[in-house]
Structure formats: C-alpha cells, structure tokens
C-alpha cells in the first residue's frame, strides 16, 4: 500500500494567477534560463529552466540538447490530451496566444515540496475556463517509484482537471479530485498499462473512512478523502461503462446537482449496496464473490476498517447517506439473532460469510430494517462480516441501535440528543451500557483515527497534487 501525501490546495486557487514566467506563486527566478519545446502533436508547449534555481532534472540520453525530463512531459501531455479527446471528452478551452501559441502551456518549476503539480484555471466565462499546468521540475525526494510514473500520474491527473474546466470548473472537490484520480487509471489502461498505482492507493484510503458520506469530505483544504472517491467512480464505470463519465460531465456543465445527477443515471439505491459489498471483498477477504464480481485489484487494497468486532455486536450508530459501516462478528457458534431498537428504513443490513479460503463469498442474511428481534439461523463458529449501508440521498443520517448475538433483545431506544446528524462529524452517539447481546464489543480503529495516522505518516512521502 502506498502512503498518502499531505494536502496542498492549488487547483482551487483564484483564477487569473500570474504564470511562472510572470511572477506567479511558483515563479521562475530572474537567474533561470527559461526555454520551451512543443510536443510532437502540437497539443502542449513545455517550459523549463536549463540553468538556475528551477533547473529541470538533468539527463539527455539522445544527445539532442533537450533534457529527457522535458521531452517525456511533452510526449505524455500530447498522449493524454489525445486520449481524452479521442474518447469523447470536450476539447480544452484555448488560452489564445498566451505562452506564444494556442497549445496548453506546461511549466516545470520547483514546488519546494509543497505539492507536485497543479492545473491553474486562468480565464473563465460562466465557470468554463482556460488555464495552464505546472509540474514539479525534478521530483527529488517525492517518493515516486520512477520519474516516468510520476510524470504519467501528474499529467493524466492535472490534465483531467483541464478537461473538467471545459465543462464546469466550480464543482466540489469530492467529484473534481475523485474523477481526476479515476482518469489516471483510465489513461494508464488506455495506453496498455495494468492500472495506476496512485489511483489504487487512494481507493485503499477510502476503505479507512467508509462511514463518511461520499459527497461530504472533511472541511478545510482538499483532503485525501476527496481523492479517494475515485473508487466509487471506478465502480460506477465498471457497472455502466467508461462512456458513462461523458454523460456525467455533461451534467456538470448543465449545473445539475452532483449526487442527483448520479441517481438520474444509475440505480443508485441498489448500486450503492453492491458498492458496499465490493468494498468488503478486498484485501484478505477478496476473491470469493460469485460471478466474478469485485475489483480486479481487490486483493491489493483493504479490507475496510471495522467499526467494531467481537463475539457479539451492540452499537448505537449513525448511518450517514451514501456511506457504510462495517463490523466483524467473531461468532462462537449457535443461533444468531438480530435486534433493532427502532425502525431504520434508510439502512440496509447484510451478514456475509466466508469460503474455505477466508474470502467473502455469500450473503447469509438481509434482515429487515424494522424494530424488533429476528432469528437469522444457526451458524457454525467462525468469522462473519456485517454491515449497515445507507444508500439513500436523505438530508440527515439515521441513528440506530442494533444488536447481533445470542440474545438481541435491545428494545430500549437510544436517548434522543436532539442532534439531526446532518454531518459525519456530528456523531450524536449516546453513552451507556449494552442492552442486549450479552457481551461488550471490541472497538476497531475508527475511520477518523486511521485517517489521521495515514496523514501523519504521509509527511515522509511525496506531497499532494491539486
């Protein structure tokens, strides 16, 4: 698993910023010797310093006097733009003769570890923007597996922001960054690769925070969660085809609500439950879903963070719209009951079992979301997985007390705190002792804590693109 970078917000800086050649935030120094080359297809013009503080990474294996780094950026930018255009995405909005031509301008500058690249919208009309692309000039100390991988990843990601800007540059980060991560993988597969590892690392991150609503990243600078929604976009395009994304970007151009636009183009209620199953069947749990369902890279990510685990489960939980909470039941064997203190019509509950290899392979129970106790059957001792998923677009979360165990008589409703639970940061959980099930749960590492650990470790690796 790749460690995630810390966050630097650059894509969402105000428009009309000065370019690096004109004294922008990451500008060339007066002592830099700046020149440019055009890509073979004429789609991009790459600017770099051959001497000075922003000097591009050295190396000229073909002896043509042009640094290999700059030539690779030019070739990749040409290829990425051609791939996106050939697929059917809108052409980029021209910047006129800014930079001396109508080609997309790419500036190789030293970000000083603050970030590794960004697309900067420049001139906008009704949220449709032209712009330019800045990239780290040498990736020294950024932790990428190779220079070629760094260039391909940054180019495919940032130039998808340029594509987005030709539809609508003002959309939320969970869509903008998530689909740009999706595009990294789309491009890599389009040129004959096996999938982008940076994309997969963010898919893995999502699985640490599945209880957060898909469209509600944490407040503040663009967080890793926004990038991690790439796993959802991948799931949807696996189900409906990559061309679904063409139609969806048209929806952004029409200023449709982002979530409603998904619902209008999918069977979102059913799809999001299936999404929860695919996310469960990852890591050591991957490989057992029937009919070949699941991610083709499922074994290299996950499994998702468990809210709690133990021989029985008793939780007073908020289930947020378009979010899932997972549990591990370490069952000693015998008759299993499920109890619900109050009706929870927005929440779907499922119990899954494992095959002989320890892979999630069969849904064993799908109890109704009605108050009361139901008998789920007699199960042998072993590990089982349980989740609750809110696949609705409800304005508020659903607060539920449930029990899963030998005696699930949890009839006492949770105390009403008055909290509507409109945000995953407002859990509204009540305290108190378990009322049924007969055994306290063993809380797992919650998504928020895992996310913070990941961010702490990230400081040792590369920085965030924007």
How many domain modules?
A: 2
- Mean of all residue-level pLDDT scores: 87
CATH class of the largest domain: Mainly Alpha
CATH topology of the largest domain: the name is Neutral Protease, domain 2
What percentage of amino acids are in beta strands?
A: 15-25%
Could you describe the largest sheet, including whether it forms a barrel? Answer: 6 strands, mixed
- How far apart, in Å, are the first and last alpha carbons? 21 Å
Helix coverage percent:
25-40%
Indicate the CATH architecture of the largest domain.
Answer: Orthogonal Bundle
Question: In CATH, what is the homologous superfamily of the largest domain?
Answer: Neutral Protease Domain 2
Strand order of the largest sheet: 11-10-13-8-6-15
| Total E-strand runs | 15
Notes on the structure:
- The chain has 10 helices and 15 strands.
- By secondary structure, it is α+β, with helices and mostly antiparallel strands.
- The chain has 2 domains: 250 residues, Neutral Protease Domain 2 (Neutral Protease, domain 2, Orthogonal Bundle); 139 residues, Jelly Rolls, CATH 2.60.120.
- The strands form 3 sheets. The protein has a 6-stranded mixed β-sheet, covered by helices on one side.
- A hairpin with a 2-residue loop joins strand 4 and strand 5.
- Helix 1 packs across helix 2 and helix 3 packs antiparallel against helix 4.
- The protein is elongated and about 75 Å long.
């Amino acid at each position: 698993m790749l460690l995630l970078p810390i966050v630097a917000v650059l894509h969402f800086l105000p428009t009309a910023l000065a370019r690096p050649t004109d004294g922008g935030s990451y500008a060339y120094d007066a002592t830099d010797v700046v020149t440019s080359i055009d890509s073979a297809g004429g789609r991009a013009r790459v600017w770099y310093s051959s001497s000075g503080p922003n000097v591009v990474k050295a190396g000229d294996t073909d002896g043509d006097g042009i640094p290999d780094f700059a030539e690779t950026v030019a070739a990749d930018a040409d290829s990425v733009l051609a791939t996106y255009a050939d697929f059917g995405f809108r052409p980029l909005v021209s910047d006129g003769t800014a930079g001396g031509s109508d080609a997309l301008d790419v500036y190789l500058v030293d970000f000083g570890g603050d970030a590794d690249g960004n697309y900067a919208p420049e001139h906008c009309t009704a949220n449709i923007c032209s712009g330019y692309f800045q990239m780290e000039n040498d990736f020294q100390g950024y932790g990428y597996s190779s220079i070629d991988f760094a260039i391909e990843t940054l180019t495919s990601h940032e130039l998808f922001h340029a594509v987005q800007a030709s539809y609508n540059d003002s959309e939320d980060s969970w869509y903008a960054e998530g689909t740009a991560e999706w595009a990294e993988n789309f491009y890599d597969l389009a040129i004959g690769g096996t999938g982008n590892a940076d994309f997969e690392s963010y898919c893995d991150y999502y699985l640490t925070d599945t209880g957060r609503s898909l469209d509600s990243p944490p407040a503040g600078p663009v967080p890793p969660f926004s990038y991690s929604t790439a796993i959802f976009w991948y799931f949807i395009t696996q189900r409906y085809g990559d061309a679904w994304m063409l139609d969806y970007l048209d929806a952004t151009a029409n200023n449709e609500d982002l979530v409603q636009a998904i619902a209008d183009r999918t069977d979102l209620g059913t799809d999001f439950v299936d999404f929860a199953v695919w996310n469960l069947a990852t890591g050591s749990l991957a490989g057992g879903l029937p009919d070949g369902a699941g991610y083709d890279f499922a074994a290299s990510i996950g499994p998702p963070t468990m809210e709690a685990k133990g021989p029985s489960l008793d939780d007073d939980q908020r289930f947020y719209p378009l979010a899932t909470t997972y549990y591990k039941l370490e069952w000693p064997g015998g008759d299993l009951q499920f109890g619900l203190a109050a009706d929870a019509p927005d929440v779907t509950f499922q119990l899954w079992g494992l095959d002989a290899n320890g892979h999630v392979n069969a849904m064993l129970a799908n109890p109704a979301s009605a108050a009361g106790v139901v008998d789920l059957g007699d199960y042998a001792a072993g590990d089982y997985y349980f989740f609750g998923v809110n696949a609705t677009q409800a304005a508020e979360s659903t607060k539920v007390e449930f029990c899963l165990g030998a005696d699930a008589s949890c009839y006492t409703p949770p105390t009403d705190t008055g909290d509507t639970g409109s945000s995953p940061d407002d859990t509204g959980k009540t305290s108190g002792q378990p009322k049924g099930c007969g055994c306290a749960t063993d809380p797992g590492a919650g998504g928020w804590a895992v996310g913070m650990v990941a961010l702490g470790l990230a400081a040792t690796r590369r920085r965030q693109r924007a």
